[in-house]
Structures are given as C-alpha cells and as structure tokens.
Amino acid sequence: MVEEARKGRGAEETYREVALLHMAGISDGFLATLGVRFLTLLYESIDNDPGSALFVERVDGRVVGFVSGGRGMASIYRQMLRRWPRLLLALMPALASPSKLHRILEIVLFSRKQKPVPGCPVAELFSIAVDPPYRGAGVAARLYERIKQRFTTDGESAFCIVVGDGLLPAHRFYQNMGAQPMAKISVHNGQGSTLYRHDL
Fold first, then answer.
1. Helix (H, G, I), strand (E, B), or coil: what is residue 186?
2. Which of 111, 129, 133, 149 has CA 20 to 30 A from 139's CA?
3. What is the pLDDT of residues 56-111, one digit of tens each?
4. Closest by alpha carbon to 121, among 148, 90, 142?
5. The domain that contains 34 carries what CATH number?
6. Which letter, b or e, does each residue of 23-41 get, where b requires 16 or more Cβ atoms within 10 Å of its Cβ?
7. Burial class (CB in 10 A: 0-12, 13-18, 19+), 149
8. Angstrom distance (rounded) from CA 170 to CA 175
9. Rounded-to-integer distance, Cα 184 and Cα 194, Å
10. What are the distances in angstroms from CA 194 to CA 60, 144, 158?
C-alpha cells in the first residue's frame, strides 16, 4: 500500500532507504553519483517542502518503491541550503571533481527555469523507482497514481516529467501511464531528454 513518507521520528531511515533505492534504480542518472548522504538529504528536503510530496510502498516494513514530485526543485534546493553543514559534508567528494561541480551547477540553473518550454506545467514528477524483485507487480503504477492524486488535490491541471533519452523502459512506462511527449530538451550539455506532459 502506498503511503506518505514518515516525517519526524523514524523518518531518517525512510529517507536513507529511498536514497539507496534511488542509487540502485536510477543508477544512470547524475544524482546517483553524488552518494547516499546527498540523496538522503534531498529526499528529506522534498518531504519537508510544502509544495512537494514523497510517497513510498513498503513490504514487511521495508521501502520497495517510491515516487516524489512537486512544483519544481528550486524550493527544495533552498531547503537543502538551510541544512548547509550536512549539504557541504554530503557534497565533499563532488567538490574535488570539476566535472561534477559543473553538472551540479547545470541542474541548479535548469531548476530555476520554472518552465523550460512554453506550456510546460509547473508541477513535476521528480523521480520514481521500484526495487527490482518487486517490478512487474504494479508497484510503479500505484505510486504513479498516488502522485497524480496529490497533484489533483493540489489543484494542478497537469504535470511534467523529464526523462533521459537513453532510459527506454522509463519512456515506455510513462507513455503507458498516459503521459505524452511534449518537447526535446537538454539538462546537461550534449545529453538529450524528453519532456513529457500528463494532463489530469
């Protein structure tokens, strides 16, 4: 059953489980290269941001899938900056890599463009991942439906999803769930992505 990630007591372990699942399930993405500490802080910030949401599905108390979404990453990065000592510690390995620093800046600058193309919804599905043994059992579809419900409750009429061009299974999943390709964009120089729109 899909539920909100816990805030307060016990939440830190949930955020860490989500971070580990992100690293395993979205390993092709750049954020996974920033490590568990960074991702734990990222999902904590998403869960504590009033305009965002983090939902998980558990089996025997363990997180086997998650989805996150909200009204853009800019406010989440501000949440992370408020926890700057933890952020600095989490990013310490990346600070030694000029290429990683460059990509971090690209992401931050991209997040400040609230609408990368005309007609792009402000609401966005940030990430979704399911533990491999639980794939094909409807977990991803339940998580996707839950974030759709959240956006509807928040009064959104549509949301977007940015998907790297090399992630073919993700493209198939989003299209099967009803999302429509809207535009080709580039978050990182030389790496294309497709911007999807899902009308509610």
1. strand
2. 111
3. 999 999 999 999 999 988 888 888 888 888 877 877 776 666 666 556 655 555 55
4. 148
5. 3.40.630.30
6. bebbeeebbbebbebbbbb
7. middle
8. 9
9. 5
10. 36, 18, 16
Q: Which domain holds residue 149?
A: 2-199
Task: Report pLDDT digits (tens) over 107-145.
Answer: 555 555 545 678 889 999 999 999 999 999 999 999 999
Residue 198 has φ and ψ, to the nearest 5°, of -120, 115
Domain count, the chain: 1
Which class for 134: exposed (0-12), middle (13-18), buried (19 or more C-beta within 10 A)? Answer: middle
How far is the C-alpha of 108 from the C-alpha of 74, rounded, in Å?
8
In three-state secondary structure terms, 27 is coil
Distance, CA of 108 to CA of 137 (rounded, Å):
35
Strands 180-188 and 158-164: unpaired
Q: In three state form, how does the secondary structure of 33-87 look?
A: HHHHHHHHHHHHHHHHCCCEEEEEEEECCEEEEEEEEECCCHHHHHHHHHCHHHH
- What residue type is assigned to position 71 of the chain? R
The structure's pTM equals: 0.87
